Amino acid sequence: MPALSAATVRMSAPQEAVSLPVRELVDLGAWATGEARRLLSGDDPEVRAALAEELREAAADSRTRAPITALSYVPEPRLGEQARIELSALVADDTHPTLTVDLLHRYLAAPTPVSYRPPEAEHRTLPAGPAVRVRHAYVQDVGRDGTGTILETCAYGIRADETWALVLLASWRALAHTDALCALTDELAATVTAGI
Fold this sequence. Notes:
This protein is α+β, with helices and mostly antiparallel strands. The protein contains four helices and nine strands.
């Protein structure tokens, strides 16, 4: 397996996804306005402005995690972002000099204080290497009344080789679409390649 570089990692993107400029130096406001205009050319200017703001915020948020690539999944642009999809790299270090699927399993399936339910994990084999698939749900933005928003995730930890791995993470709040978004994540995981 080649050494990790963004040039060696590929993933297909759904037709309904917008590629977020997480590594390009662009003005996010201007970029988002252009994407919203492209997706909603004949729509109400207020709807376009709302989508532009959501795309700008999505790109800014994804940039904070420095993924290799990030997508905003917008199958119905008038309704905004349905899911966020990010592909990131993990590199071995002094603490973990060898990356294994079991280590990825522990990393991705660790319960947290904001876990809504226990994570569900299963090992799989993908074209890019052995992997673990983890579904998890978290409670976010808990108010004083104890209620919050559920954030669902479907993640793959893919062991490219002993020194680096990939994490494909899809997240969403559109709980009615959970099964379809998990299936989409499964399809995308099968397209990830980590070669020359």
